[in-house]
Amino acid sequence: MSNEKPRKKNICVLFGGVSPEHEVSLRSAAMVLDAIDREKYNVFPVGIRRDGRWFLHAGAPYELPDGSWEMHPGNTSAFLSPERGRGLAMPSGGRINYQKLDCIFPVLHGENGEDGTVQGLFALAGIPFVGPGVCASAAAMDKAVTKIIADAAGVKQAGYVTAYKKNAKEACAEAIEKFGLPLFVKPATTGSSVGVSKVKTEEELFPAVKAALKFGGKALIEQYIPGRELEVALLGNDEVIASRCAEIISGGEFYDYDGKYAASSTARTVVPANVPAEAEETARAMAKTIYAALGCRGLSRADFFLKEDGEVVFNEINTIPGFTSISMYPRLMEDAGIDNTELVTRLIELALK
Asked: Rounded to whole angstroms, how far apart are CA atoms 89 and 104?
């Protein structure tokens, strides 16, 4: 009987990126790098600067959140080769060295990170990766497309109007006529509440839509749903775990970027949420339905509203949820008995399957 240990898998943790959610990615990646089991995995932390340049980070995870990782003297240029079997390409001394990879763990939020673009690169390279694939990532990132799929799946959600630059004024008028005020305005393809605003007057609506359109040329004007904000974490491929519900108590008009990440935030989270059992089971079932309808795998986090009359309304789904110290996804998994190290291991194993 052989006493040889199994070969450690080579895992690339990819972070940073060019999106407005760059800083959130750095915080999330620091947690993943702290949690990953280095007895099982060889870890290659690769960061993408805001200018789009890729580097293999030679320092510690704590250097990520404040951006100081970029200045580490041991960093070397490294990017993912699209050629199958190559892995990381590292130019040095007029030649390119390659490091084969078994799996990529993208901790990239927003544009070029969870919208299917970098997932396409992983697929070209033939390397397994954590999280949903190209189609599911693209569909979940575009909130207007998610709405269409949710409708087709019979998932109850807020009414909406899609606004483009060419029809922004007409879309504003249509939304007011259909839903009245207040309304929510969201860029169609950002996360972490970037560019989101609550509009209370007709005069505020068009400027809010114009501001949202700066993030990609398409925006949603959504019906306001008064109610409690709930979140459900999802883990799995074919067999999916849906966590208990968590509740977000925003402390402001809504759970915006500062509420999620600023040190001065007055937002509170309750894990698990104190909600009726029937409402919680409805939210968990709806989360699984939309996860399956989009074709997700690995992980996602689904967000809902719970109205006073007990009705549960789908809000949106995030295919690379935050992994920061205050993020709901790892907290919900911990509530389910899965600590951060086990969670990272499970996600890698799901990718390798």
From this structure: 14
